[in-house]
Amino acid sequence: MSNKRVLVTTADEGTWPKDEPILFLGEWCRQYHRKESWSILDAEVVSPYGLEPNQKSKDHQLLIRVYAELLDELSHELNKLHQCSHSQRYWDIVLGYWLQRFVSVCINRYHGLMHALDHDDISEVIVYGNDEYKLATLNSYGFQLALYNDLWNQNFYKRILDFKGISQRRRMPVEDESISFQKSSPLVQEKGLKVWLKGVWKSVFRFFIRNDDAFIINSYLPFGMAVKLQLSLGQFPSFWEQQTVESSEFENDIRSKISFNHSDHSGFDLFIRQILPESIPTCYIEGFSKLVDFTAQLPWPSTPKFIFTSNNFDTDEVFKVWTAQKVEQGIKYYVGQHGNLYGTWIYHTHQIPEYSTSDKFISWGWGNRTSHIVPAFVFKTANHPVRKNCSGKGILLIERTIYNRLATYDRHQNQEIYQQEQFRFVNALLPDLKNDLNIRLSYYTLGSWSDKQRWLDYDPTLPYDAGTALIWDLIDKSRLVVHSYDSTGILETLSLNIPTIAFFDQFYFDEINEEALPYYELLESVGILFRTADAAANHINQIWDNLEAWWMSTELQEAKNKFCHQYARRVDNPVEYLKNILEN
Questions:
Q1: Most C-beta atoms within 10 A of its C-beta, which of 32, 72, 282, 453?
Q2: For 193-244+287-383+577-583, which CATH class?
Q3: What is the CATH number of domain 395-567?
Q4: pTM of this prediction?
Q5: Segment 479-523, tens digit of pLDDT
Q6: DSSP alpha helices (H): ranges in 329-485?
């Protein structure tokens, strides 16, 4: 009797065989809210790829090497295609983030599929797609959206199977879709007084703009401080917004002019060079001249004193092209930290574009005197008052959700472990404390983790916020904030002296770098940070009635302050402090 199984690579249930043993390529194939469909099947799931520390490290080194090689080759090819002579730094600013993510996705899809084919007894592979489908999205944010889409992923898997010469597969007919992912990166939606004030400013500030004004966009400073910073620089406060350019369609004739060295490569290195020309977003190929022309007409300063952003270096195509041009003209380019993991995560290396392309990277406290990383303070909460006592009511548990499949490894099993830890935490709380609990689900809803349904199935009586309320409204009302993963929120609440407890499993601790680990262990030593959900909940049970005595103790405050000085610093005069960094 054969033990072979059919390998399923998609959550599209219409492609699943109903009367044959199935092997799902990953947990993303069997979505939680469709449990009644897959739970009745004779089905197993491939062991997740790339989670072992050694393999993850090996794949990270592969990413760094291939990225560096492709950036060099791609810079040459794009200069030739567009008849220009830009530096590699120019192209790193323009498309470095997209290229790094693309290499990461290729490692995950290629080696994840090969992992299944090499280790499991598979009769055939179910994959749908066609040779006419193009993997190129319109821009880098569209690429991130594509990673959620079955049709895009199916065509990617088809390219791998074609490359490997695996002919035994079943192509299920599907209605072709026109997927352009014509979206720019999401903008923060602001309300109330901020919007009104910016509207007034936008109608008048352009009359006061000088060509040598510093160009500051999305600094992550609070509104009032952003105004004060520009006034301190001697310029009228301006609030530039992200611009978009009309998209361009894929053209085979243009793509055929792009070629990479194939003769010296084999295996994965050859595959990624073969698939890269059709995968580059159209804004960098067909629409690039349009993008360049658009930047020439922008009412932005022509010779800015410097350029500073904490966000737009990633998916803002207009900003990146404009900035790359200014950098080649000698304009200084500064990037501010915009979240966690900087300076603490072993996989945040100097190769990421905000490090490698900026003249200064301005951190929230950490730095190296021999590098261009300059310590500053937590931008986002610089105007928030420091909490003097344990005010507020109840416990706020802040949750994460699964992110899109852009890591080299399979994140879904980690997320399943994480989810069970959340349930254990709630279960370990005393009944009275459980009644005081408010669960904040992630606002990030593009994934298929079904956070809300999982919590309802666990306990329909628990109160939760589905990511709709402003997070700081919830924090300000809470007596204790619990972070369930290594997040930006930990840095923000600790910097404001808000009673904070965090717990995350060994997976996170294993990825803290050697320099940062002693600071995390300081938080462990005073009961702020825990490695298990049970330990965190039991600690809360013990200190809840005397929360203020615990939180305001000398030992805890000293440990917290040492951690914050390194990774979540506050300064007495943040505007003057940042001004000195920018003008130095």
A1: 282
A2: alpha beta
A3: 3.40.50
A4: 0.93
A5: 999 999 999 999 999 999 999 999 998 888 889 999 999 999 999
A6: 353-356, 412-428, 431-435, 451-458, 471-477
